[in-house]
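In response to a reviewer's request, we include the raw inputs and outputs for one of the modeled complexes. The four entities were modeled together in a single run.
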Amino acid sequence: MNQDLPPVGWSRDDMARLAAIDIADGSYVNLGIGIPELVAAHVPPSREVVFHTENGLIGVGPPPPAGFEDPELINAGKKPVTALPGAAYFHHADSFAMIRGGHLDVSVLGAMQVSEKGDLANWSTGEPDAIPAVGGAMDLVAGVKTVVVLTEHTTKSGEPKLLRRCTFPLTGRGVVRRVYTNLAVVELSPDGFAALALAPGLSLEEVRRWTGAPLSDARPEHVRNGE
Amino acid sequence: MNQDLPPVGWSRDDMARLAAIDIADGSYVNLGIGIPELVAAHVPPSREVVFHTENGLIGVGPPPPAGFEDPELINAGKKPVTALPGAAYFHHADSFAMIRGGHLDVSVLGAMQVSEKGDLANWSTGEPDAIPAVGGAMDLVAGVKTVVVLTEHTTKSGEPKLLRRCTFPLTGRGVVRRVYTNLAVVELSPDGFAALALAPGLSLEEVRRWTGAPLSDARPEHVRNGE
Amino acid sequence: MIDKRVESCAAAVADISHGATVMIGGFGEAGSPLELIHALVDRGARDLTIVSNNTGSGRVGLAALIAPGRVAKMICSYPRSANSTVFPELYRSGRIALELVPQGTLAERIRAGGAGIPAFYTPSAVGTILADGKESRVFDGREHILEHAIRADFALVRADRADRYGNLTYSKTARNFGPIMCTAADCSIVQVRSISEPGEMDAECVITPGIFVQRVVHVANPQQESRLVREGVAYP
Amino acid sequence: MIDKRVESCAAAVADISHGATVMIGGFGEAGSPLELIHALVDRGARDLTIVSNNTGSGRVGLAALIAPGRVAKMICSYPRSANSTVFPELYRSGRIALELVPQGTLAERIRAGGAGIPAFYTPSAVGTILADGKESRVFDGREHILEHAIRADFALVRADRADRYGNLTYSKTARNFGPIMCTAADCSIVQVRSISEPGEMDAECVITPGIFVQRVVHVANPQQESRLVREGVAYP
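The model returned the following structure tokens for the whole complex.
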């Protein structure tokens, strides 16, 4: 086992579950492409959360059973979905009126980098031969009331994604409220990153080792003491 | 008979018929409140013209028979109308996107005054105790491809409505293309008002007498000679 | 479970307070939420700013709200219409302020308010007194003026059907300002003729998705404003 | 009689010439007017500016238009997607220009183009490199950037049903950019699966009123882009 790689920590489903638990009953939520898509499956059954996809549907349901895919019923990741009772279709200008106009409660996005000021970089490495592709991310971070990030704590090679400053081109400045990683749940406080919870078996020191900026301790007292 | 009042000339239906004849087959047309509403009934049967009302309907049909009025199916003048096969309803922002975006071919409006530069005044006398009410007129003149006016040539007391300069507050500057009055059909040429046709029995001199600006003669040669 | 239904018009408007900005749907009587407006009259809130295309007629609906001096300011395009006497009286005696806005600019400002667009340029009203004092700018050789978004604390709207999510359909030209006003208010309150089960409304035909609606009130048999005016009814 | 039906895709695109700006609907394959795009490939017009959310996939549809170098410039939000290799190749070798626009700004710029709004302010992209060189202005304490309308000579759109007036309905999320693109082009060309008689479409549920549409082509059995890509088909 490679000593220079970060611990495994939570699974992607664990991360999605933690994010889902923080979404209030009755919320309108947009899920980004990738790990964020897992959140829908983890909403507690006692709550009703309505999912929006920017390509023109609110009331997104689970994926259809195999063989029942409709190429004209897809989500922003271009994967087949279903529409729940109470759903509505609309065109792109109306869809982004919802987003930009502040009507959505939560946007769950993936990230390449997050800075301690809440800056988000999730669309381009800025490398000269990269094909830049932004999609709706800049609109989501500019318009949705609460923006949270669901991402591995580091890159595959162990580079931290939580940094003092993003080195990749930004998606938005000071927009991220909370980050759910495989190692920790991290809040963006006025003083920077603050750990709200750690994956089982991990110490704050261990998580700090894989974090590219100071990480304060915002865990409840009893959890801290029990460490 | 009062010598100081202008001749009667064309009837309102005559005026509406003249305006209707100039509307090309397949046009999309908005009719203002008042005399312009008469135009719909005079479209030649060989042509199909689609009428728009800014309160959210395209494909406006004739008034319903008595007893079949629907208070939720009205035109901009708040009179009951019908919807023809092929009609569509939409909200106010979409309706004015049609208007402002240049999608309508013809706007037929009433007027208080028209200047020889094509300025239109049709919403306020500017008197201190007048209740100003503008409606959609300023949007129509700013957005519709061709704006024509249907109005009596003078006020009831004989004051000319076609003037060198409007004295009432403007609806728009340089917007009117053609004016259909009870005395004449008048085009707005680069040199000002030009008569295209006169009501039966009237001479150009007579019409000029009731016009508050120079009126040139743009009638076809054979009509002029036959005068 | 999401359920935006509220048991009465009174309950729906119970937190509209003095000084609130309230959008009220309707073009004339078509789409005017008469029962919600009357509940607001009963509620007694003062110093209101009302955004609505007209100013009501007779002594019911919006006119009944204006009559007792509850409205400090009207933002509208057409405050003068048949049987409209309440607003003109107050306006002439200086007891109500008026911001007159061309109808298309009014609609676009409301739409902008709901869409997170703080300001936009429009050719409407250029060269008129309604452009006086406004910033102007030439695009593509043509003058335009800068107009700002309008938002409100509340919107009172009448639609035709709703479900518990607040999805709405409208009836014919009663749609008018309803859909855009629902998007531009912090709290949009809608009265509807009938309530559907979720899924009964065709998702392709929903005009206002429920995300834009906060409260729904079932008013099965709304009164017809023109009839009340004809009968000389005054509210309350 | 108004009848906007045209007998074939080829006839519908016959006047799209070199240098034209063309909007192409669709979000991925959903709503992409494959048959119209292929007719445009056949037509041979060069130096096109294409406005479309994506850049196509495989060697069919939009990718088949880009591959032979017909497109001088793409205005889009997401030129990189699964099976998208044609655009990246040309872009890396400097043979195609790219104007990258956030998706919501792209939609709003198109909507503005259709609505006669030359420019508007938006908070999207503030503080990012996509705001570089753009005018900015503070409204209500928050920075916004000025964005300009986009218009096109032609729009190619896929809808579900049409009547001879050009009234349209769409299918599910294939609606996406179609309705706004129809409003923003001088000539909007729409392929549909079926044609209705006037009045068969519910006037309450028409999504694009015919006034925004100039030509309608009946393509009863459109090909499915993802299937062609899977099968390795290259057009022509």
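As requested, we also summarize the result in words. Residues 65 and 203 of chain C are 36 Å apart (CA to CA). The radius of gyration of chain C is 18 Å.
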